[in-house]
Design goal:
This protein is α/β, with parallel strands linked by helices. It folds into 2 domains: 222 residues, Periplasmic binding protein-like II (D-Maltodextrin-Binding Protein, domain 2), CATH 3.40.190; 96 residues, D-Maltodextrin-Binding Protein, domain 2 (3-Layer(aba) Sandwich), CATH 3.40.190. It has 14 helices and 10 strands. Helix 6 links the parallel strand 6 and strand 7. The longest helix is centred in the last third of the chain and has 20 residues.
Length: 336
């Protein structure tokens, strides 16, 4: 399933490269490594960046290239195949605390969790203690989703080992396993959760961000790329900044949805209600609930609090220099 989505997404990216948006012959080609399949509104900033010509405006011809999860994304990034990928703060901090790798977060996209945990209202998951003894579906063993489940339990003072994980799909159809009692719930994206809620009256959803503070999402690069091609990174972040500004200004998302649909088509984008609801939730996460605050800036206090949470939960090793793991200097609003 995931492989098919990735293949389709790659085709969509190829068909919808920013070169079609008038990027011009002088545009610099750039490969963006996507840890997500492209057919999700969790990728809305990058999709609009291509479809709306926002990357092209800053001189970039961006290809969106799916990879299989964060671990592969980070490895591909370090190998030099692509200069930027998105990653969870959790994954970056666990990686850096174990081995000081040449990685740096250059902008924070989601200021809260972009994950949701679906459950049946007959056996709800609304607080950490509800998870004890329940089997939770996750897309991979030991990945971000599994770590988030562990953090939910740790936030309530419970041993994460008391909640088994089972590798399941991320699709709306996985909710059938919940209804059958085979799993207590499963982790998925915001837009998939909204589809399930619209299709099943017995479905409920838990936002892990209500108890987990370290599940932000950041744009990640390497120290080498920062030194050798900072202008490309600045252009990419400027394009993302412009797309987020467009989403913030587009109250009902009429213009932004229409623009994405010019080049992309998938279930959650094609459904007006689901698309608007999902983008509305994401907009709150991109802005941190305050559209007047600068976009993409990583706040040191929240960053360090996230690291402390991970260390306290035993997810990340202590003693890391977390302040050196992010850099705001490439952002459009950064002081010279």
């Amino acid at each position: 399933m995931a492989g098919g989505a990735a293949a389709t997404g790659s085709l969509l990216a190829a068909c919808g490269s920013s070169s079609q948006e008038g990027s011009g012959e002088g545009a610099e080609a750039m490969t963006y490594l996507s840890i997500l399949p492209l057919e999700t509104l969790a990728m809305a900033p990058e999709l609009l960046g291509v479809a709306g010509g926002y990357f092209a405006k800053h001189g970039l011809d961006v290809e969106l290239q799916p990879v299989k999860g964060t671990a592969q994304g980070i490895q591909t990034l370090i190998s030099g195949i692509g200069p930027v990928c998105r990653a969870g703060q959790i994954d970056l901090m666990t990686t850096m605390s174990e081995e000081n790798r040449p990685l740096v977060a250059i902008g924070t996209l989601y200021r809260g969790s972009g994950l949701r945990i679906l459950y049946s209202k007959s056996d709800p998951l609304t607080k950490p203690e509800d998870f004890v003894g329940k089997t939770i579906g996750v897309p991979s063993e030991g990945g971000t989703s599994s770590k988030v489940v562990s953090l939910v339990l740790a936030a309530g003072g419970f041993d994460p080992a008391r909640t088994p994980r089972q590798v399941t799909g991320l699709t709306p159809g996985t909710f059938n396993l919940v209804q059958q009692g085979r799993i207590g719930g499963y982790v998925t994206s915001i837009d998939t959760a909204n589809i399930v809620l619209s299709q099943h009256e017995d479905a409920g959803v838990f936002d892990p961000g209500t108890v987990v503070k370290s599940d932000s999402q950041v744009y990640l690069t390497t120290r080498d790329v920062m030194q050798q091609n900072p202008d490309m990174l600045k252009a990419f972040l400027a394009g993302i900044h412009d797309t987020l500004t467009a989403f913030v200004a587009d109250k009902n998302f009429d213009k932004t949805i229409a623009k994405m649909r010019e080049q992309y088509s998938f279930a959650t984008l094609d459904d007006d209600v689901i698309a608007r609801k999902s983008l509305g939730i994401s907009r709150e996460l991109w802005t941190g609930g305050d559209p007047n605050q600068p976009l993409l800036v990583t706040h040191e206090d929240a960053w360090l609090a996230g690291y402390r949470e991970l260390v306290d939960a035993g997810v990340a090793k202590p003693g890391g220099d977390a302040s050196s793991w992010f850099d705001n200097s490439l952002l459009p609003e950064a002081k010279a």
